[in-house]
Amino acid sequence: MTCKSHINPNFSHQIKHISNLKVVWRKDTKLDQAIENDKQYKLCARVVKEILNEPGQVIPLRYLEKRRERLRLSIKITTFLNRYPGLLEKYYDRIKPKTNPVLFLRPTVGLRDFLEEENNIYAYNEELIVAKLCKLLMMSKEKVLSVDKLAHVKREFGFPNNFLVDLVPKYSNYFKIVGYPGEGKSFLELNSWNPEFAKSVIQLRAEEEAKLTGISVRPNFDVKLPSGFFLRKEMREWVRDWLELDYISPYEDVSSLDQSSPEMEKRTTGVFHELLSLSINKRVAVPILGKFSNEYRFSNAFSTVFTRHSGIFYLSLKGGIKTAMLREAYKDSELIDRDPLLEIKDRFVELLDKGKSERADQLRVQKEEVKKDIEMMALRSEEEEEEYDTLGCDEQM
After folding, report:
1. Is 148 helix (H, G, I), strand (E, B) or coil?
2. I need a labelling partner for 296 at 20 to 30 A (CA). Which of 65, 82, 126, 149 fits?
3. pLDDT tens, residue by residue, 57-90
4. What is the rounded distance in angstroms from the CA atom of residue 115 to the CA atom of residue 99?
């Protein structure tokens, strides 16, 4: 629901203290399934990344086998290769000049084609990537973020591997690196403020609705409780009053706000909404968000926001890790608010499916050949038996 009524300036004093309000966590199997659906993709991506990070992008099979636990791979590498053909190919080579040849792994032609296509998709969406990076900096209190932290979340937001080396220097009007790169003490700093980037998804949505209807729309959260989910009366009243507070943009300076105030709760919720909206899958693991607590002014108990506002977020426990998800971005387990950079994932999944299809065709041909061989053997056996019987009859005559 989107509230459009005017605000009583004294509303914030009428709202009960946040810490007194509790919402029981409830499992959402459909949103959990969205995470489960990505398990295959993430597993394959981890293994491929391991190969690509090796010198020459090749590795002895037995070396990769020893890294299974670190890769969280529960099956043997040979089983993985059979299950996901089309990613890696085997060949023999020597580890050292005078040693015996051993099995090595390298990317297939199909995987190399995908990597080239991935670079093209990144290049096509370069403006989007730059805008995302600017927005992450613009929401931070000092307009500065640790380079190490940004590198750690590059996959969540769709940044290419080399964005700090190639992209940042190219857009020196927006960014500059300060500190000591390579020593864990370097930071990315915002050089200039672009007002076009300083609009949140919620604000842009309100502007779009106003254009369509011709009626001024006040920016606010879209609250949709899942089917069968009910809030206690006290909590319903708190949410109603809290929604009546002015929306505070995540790009506004809130240094004067009390950390425990309802207004700060609204701003924090807005930051989380914007961060999840900027992410590729509209979901981010809570420990990753926690790394930026200081930069984005999150309280120590920031994760309670996701359960307290269950109509905006869902806190999944799938896979033994807490993941914050944006409800409005999903319909059941399907992502409907799709980031353009998701095309990379789509192409990778197509490569996996193609490899499986080709493998299935090979197995079918092999089975048919075996079946033909068996039939030929049976036919020969019958002919030999007939010939034997004929010879037996001739001898009797």
Report:
1. helix
2. 126
3. 999 999 999 999 999 999 999 999 999 998 999 9
4. 32
pLDDT tens profile 120-153: 999 999 999 999 999 999 999 999 999 999 999 9
What is the distance between the alpha carbons of residues 274 and 179, in angstroms, rounded to a whole number? 28
List the structure tokens of 12: 């914030």
Pair 317, 36: CB distance under 8 Å: no
Q: How many CB atoms lie within 10 A of CB 332?
A: 11
The answer to whether 276 touches 339, Cβ cutoff 8 Å, is no
Q: Which residues pair with 329 in a beta bridge?
A: none
Number of alpha helices (DSSP H) and beta strands (DSSP E) in the chain:
16, 11
Q: How confident is the model at residue 377 (pLDDT cuts 50, 70, 90)?
A: confident
Strand locations in the chain, DSSP E? Answer: 59-60, 88-93, 102-107, 144-146, 175-180, 185-190, 283-285, 313-316, 323-326, 330-331, 334-335
- DSSP 8-state secondary structure symbol assigned to residue 159: -
Domains and their CATH numbers in the chain? 11-35+120-337 (no CATH), 41-116 (1.10.10.10)
DSSP 226: P
DSSP 3-state of 236: helix
